[in-house]
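pls read this protein:
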Amino acid sequence: MNSQDLAKFSLPDSAGVYMFKKGRQVLYVGKATSLRDRVRSYFGPDLIATRGPLLVDMVFQADKVKCLKTDSVLEALILEADLIKKFQPKYNTKEKSDKSFNCVAITDEDFPQVLIVRNRELMSQKIEKVTSKIQAVYGPFPSSSQLRDALKIIRKIFPWRDSKCLRRQHSNILKNVGMLSGERGCFNYQLGLCPGVCVGAISKKEYGRTIRNLKLFFEGKKGALVKALEREMRAFAKRQEFEKALTIRKTIFALNHIQDVALLKNEDGRNTPSAPPTPQSGGGTGQAGADGVFRIEAYDIAHMSGKNMTGVMIVFEGSLPKKTDYRKFRIKGFVQSNDVGALREILNRRFGHSEWPLPSLIVIDGNDTQKRATEEILNSLNLEIDVVAVTKDGRHKPTRIIGNQKIVEQHKKSILEANAEAHRFAISYYRKLERQNLTRTSLKINRHG
């Protein structure tokens, strides 16, 4: 094929899957945010540099291209995996052995888990992390990072239990017989990512419906899934079970408005580059920023009795972490044991970078004091960005979120997740610096005897 041949084919400017074919044989399957732009990219002058000689040969062999539109990039990723499994395209498997691809496995038990497993493990039937049988497998998926991002999106729509929930379930059993004390419910249950198997908040029958819906989604039957959910919603409403009907309505809305910004990536898995917006306002009132993406920046401080103070900024876009935008800060000012002073320093340094996109929402670990300090800095810079503070108890568990309650209600899950991720990242960075300090001290002692 050559670029002149493209005029013969329909290339929509929408998300979906494309197939290069030779006659009836499928040579290669790929997904795209814009099918038109992605397919055209195969006929640019730099193809061998960007795609490699293997795909240059594929384009030369192909005589047609077929496009299948989807409602979202997430659905394109699932359809791509299904078509690769169905057709075993020559150039997909040549480009990377499909044995190394990841699959999604659903276990066969009363409350099934959803796991990522290697295709080679399934083929050899040696899966160390699975103790029960497997009832369904989807994939293989070429990009492990995109698969993980996809599951984070899907789990917000259809929550499932994991090994952490299972451990908490055992703990609660012990607690109920007087052998253990402590809080009930795993952390993912608090975030809405687990349906509460660990606390008995969902029955086996209800959980089974969630797994059934999840399987329909992975089978690419979103239309049938939405229709089934609409029937359930009407049935609950007719029985005046309005709370259950409202829950299903929210699920339908989520399916029809999938936020999959984290999946807008090139074939090689890297984020598509884009020019940063000119910093003026992060949106205010919990709105998306200038590029249409709702961006959360969460901050946390780590230190040991005021020593070696460090801080971090983590970023969520479209409710998913954007790790390329994470930042670490060593506290330079003399703010020993002063978390607020350290926070002020970090924020001043962060907003000194006009090339960084501005957030729609800032999440602070702390209380009214930290929140006011953040707002003072924003006001001094004439920035209209909402701020919320996550207050913790003595065990570092969230107790309340201070800030605009309308924004809190709308983004509660993402706020808690971003706050937890900031804490994890801050502790990880602090421990790394501590290890480096210990190593340097040890070297000095050895050098001087």
User: Anything to note?
Assistant: Residues 167 and 198 are 8 Å apart (CA to CA).
